[in-house]
Task: structure prediction
Amino acid sequence: MAKPKGQYRFSFGPWNIDEGADPFGPPVREPIAMAKKFKVAKELGYHGVQFHDDDVVPDIDTKSATQIAKEAAKIKKMLDGEGLVAEFVAPRLWFAPETIDGGYTNNSAKLREYAIERTKTAIDIMNMVGSTSLVLWLAREGTYIRESKVGRKQVLQIRDALNVFLGHDPKVRILIEPKPNEPVDSAIISTIGHAVGIGYLTSDPARVGCLVESAHSILAGLDPSDDMSYALAHDKLWSVHLNDQGNMKFDQDKSFGSYNLRRAFNQVRVLEEYAYGRNGEWVGFDVKAMRTQKLAVGTKHLANSKATFLNLLDKVTSIDTKLEAELIKARDYEELDRYFLCLLMGKKY
Ligand code: GLO
Ligand code: MG
Result:
């Protein structure tokens, strides 16, 4: 087994330890306090925590700048106490009544302004917790029916908003997390190609990158490892949300590798080929415990996703690269297929 080239540091967000509510039923597990979630992160060998702005400052819209600063400082202190760092902050732009029909692409100028101001506050909180990364999952930037918005304008409205944020903080790096649908019928920045592309429209493309979530690629009918490769070729893959997904269903956020191990293997493979993490990129897991899971074992999805990643990394670093090269040269892809299946099944080839 070769030594990995990548430098892997793991993270998750507080929403990844949840109470199990779904659109059809109420919570089934007791809530866990933030301090306990940080302890879980530490115990499971995670190094970073991802945040929404209101994970750091609950009920953010009702609070003053002083109160926001006070609460953010408290979270920063808790993180420091555990030896954890904040990977990113993301504005939760899909919850408030102002964002019912989108944030930056809302048809109302006043409501677009709300989304922009809220994001500036999220950037300030990002600084307060010691991060320079802002993640934008563009949840409601899109349409329920196409005729309700003009697509071209939506793209330019998002570009204009990005320019405001780049100007608001000369150090902020913006990571766009695309998803093709859910909650909207049709998202305007739906794939990694769109995310990378819009970065080049901004005033400072060097500070706009992206985050690939495995489930979101699968929902778009694409292979997450191909999406990652595309972003890596642009040096724009600045974080990932690894998880798994039973093809085109609702966004399942299953444990990494739980549905399709080979697809997970190929994600690790492309990250390792790039020596991912050498520029400080994180390996985030955006995973949910199954609703059937009891409270006492409600964090196994986080332990398991990380363990699966490391097991697959062992597989990647033990690829017989000489044999691989020979089979590729001979164009014997049937044999190459068999070789990788044997490797994944732990069978002698
Ligand atoms: C939902 C997204 C969401 C984001 C999170 C961080 O489908 O994956 O969980 O990753 O809000 O921006
Ligand atoms: Mg995500």
